[in-house]
Amino acid sequence: MMVRDFELIAVDVDGTITGPDLSLDLTAVKALRELGKKVKVALVTGNAYPIAISIFRYVRPSKERLIIAENGCVVIVGDEVRKVDGGELRKRLLSYLRERGYEGLISEDSYLRAADLALRGDERILLRVQEELQGEFPEAVIRYSGYALHIMPKGVNKGSGLKQLCLMTGTPCSKVVAIGDSYNDVDMFEVAGTSITLPQSPEEVKRRADFVAPGRGYGESLTLALALLLNSL
After folding, report:
1. Is there a catalytic annotation at residue 12?
2. pLDDT over 80 at 165, yes or no
3. Which terminus of the chain, N or C, has less C-beta within 10 A?
4. pLDDT in tens, 2-14
């Protein structure tokens, strides 16, 4: 894996900086901090933006706060916060989910979110609900990340969030390395100059990435990939 001339690392959180149980991989966190001394590092996540802010505070991958939260619905650079307005869509979705008896699937952190709505539960149920919602809400983007079913306004995704982050930081998208493990990371792969995925990623995600990191997956593989990037600087 040879990557040169990059200025920013955009790294997914769940399944990438974490283990399969979602606990932070502290070796990966240390590697991110080392890389963050030389280039900008942004955290990219489907988590609600207040949670994303807290994750960034404790991981501290970069001096400046750089966050893409809620799958691109919220972009934060320093103290500047830009949010997509998803209020009306959220109201209609919440009403529909309650009427259909799906209220138990609504993630607790959905009430903290600016625009993205997250559903959690059995994968088979979520995929069935996804198919139903796609027919009822054509104006929404509905993606399953492997951890939650995310529902966003059309045109919003991690790729659009990365474009916004690049504009706000003055970073050419061609000089971004995007790292992630799931279907919802592919959108930012298409925007970034270089994309890296992990061994546990679905085959389709691996096909869409430029490189697959070595190792056994999750935080271990992220650590190895970051070491290769650091050595290339």
Report:
1. yes
2. yes
3. C
4. 677 899 999 999 9
